[in-house]
Amino acid sequence: MKAALHTPGMNLGTIHVAERPTPTPAAGEVRVEVHVSGVNPTDVKARANSPEGLARVPNQDGSGVVDAVGEGVDPELVGQRVWLWEAAWKRLEGSAQEYVCLPARQAVPFPEHVSFDVGASLGIPALTAHRALTLAPDGPRRLGPGALSGKTVLVAGGAGVVGNSAIQLARWSGAQVISTVSSTDKGLLATSAGAHHVLNYRAVDVAEAVREIAPRGVELIVEVAPGANAKVNRQILGTGGVVGFYSTEGGAEFQLPATDMFLDNQAWHGIFVYTVPQSAKDSAVSAISAAVADGALRVGTEAGLPLHRFSLDRVAEAHQAVADTKTVGKVLVDVRAE
């Protein structure tokens, strides 16, 4: 089989595709014939932290078809279309290869009518978004229709891959969704994803605009740039509100007014999806699957998430596209030619 390989210390352009033996699933594992592999910023960053001297197959997310199972796994899973999550976490075997073996629970069935593109675009972005939207002390632990009814959610960076998932999941769950973006074009993408209100932070006073929409403040903020937005978030977060931040984009250090947060029962919560508690991750996987079945999680321009496609032989270019902060949309690698 063909697999993309990267050796620690090499730069982005030196991922290469090589022939490797097709793996055999161990007990508790499934083998998936990968159709599409999704690329995330975390995949690019993780390559710098690979164990010294060991070749690594990149990419956490993907989609495909189960073609073999290991001991203890239901054989009826063979032939099932699945989406993959955390394929490469603490492992050397990611989804950028024609076949990958991984624990059965990390290969999640999805319906026949849902495209492999959707399946490969879930994983890290959707799991992160679900976590951010379920952090409120009095909020739901699993999203679904009506779960966020009566709540107002602000999604910073609504044209990003996590922001896109957060908008769609929040909208599906009944929230009023506000999103901030940096341009008119990105605003159109956030609107396509389902945001009720889109604010160009370069053109309007975000705090003033949000307070007009939600006079008592917002209950949840899904944040990509906590340092840059700390001040405005303080102005728009309501009593008991939570900021879930999943990146340190725009500055890794920032100050928060502890006394004001204490008096208003507010919280800032960091999200590193790989170390999210297992029970929360199980709830997220279940909810994401339900959203996909309902048609509430989509990809493509009409869903606010443009796609950028690369063949497996061009996986280095795919990673470079993700590393380029100007790329707007989801980067996918077509592992299996249709």
Automatic annotation (TrEMBL):
Q: Which InterPro entries does the entry mention? A: ADH-like_C, ADH-like_N, ER, GroES-like_sf, NAD(P)-bd_dom_sf, Zinc-ADH_QOR/CCCR
**Pfam families for this protein:** ADH_N, ADH_zinc_N
SUPFAM superfamilies assigned: GroES-like, NAD(P)-binding Rossmann-fold domains
What Gene3D superfamilies does UniProt report for this protein, alphabetically?
Answer: Medium-chain alcohol dehydrogenases, catalytic domain (3.90.180.10), NAD(P)-binding Rossmann-like Domain (3.40.50.720)
Q: Which domain of life is it from?
A: Bacteria
Q: Supply the alphabetized keyword list.
A: NADP
- Decide whether keyword Transit peptide is in the record: no
Ranges for the Enoyl reductase (ER) domain?
A: 9-333
Q: Protein name, please?
A: NADPH:quinone reductase
**Which organism's genome codes for this protein?**
Lentzea cavernae
Q: Which gene encodes it?
A: qor
